[in-house]
Amino acid sequence: MVCRFEDLRCKEVICIKTGTKLGYPDDIEIEIKTAKIIKIIVFGRSKCFGLLGREEDFIIPWYDVEVIGEDTILISTDGIKSPPRHKGFFAELFK
Fold this sequence. Notes:
Number of strands: 7
CATH superfamily: PRC-barrel domain
CATH class: Mainly Beta
Strand order of the largest sheet: 2-1-7-6
Helix content: under 10%
Strand content: 25-35%
Number of domains: 1
CATH architecture: Roll
CATH topology: SH3 type barrels
Structural class: mainly beta
Order of helices and strands: HEEEEEEEH
């Protein structure tokens, strides 16, 4: 099966251990020397139409991807790590 990144962006990412829908892939991280995908990044959900920023991003290591199906990407992980993100000025005001 050949899949382009454009095709991956249309597939919903679901964690099979918790049944949680994480969203759709927004970015990928590739190792240049080997041309292998390292991580899939799903941006966090926006708060108040994006005016108050977003929730933290989900960073999914490639080895946690179990199945890439027609409509979904199934992952198996115990904990999804999110990088620390600086909260914006307005997010701090309305906390």
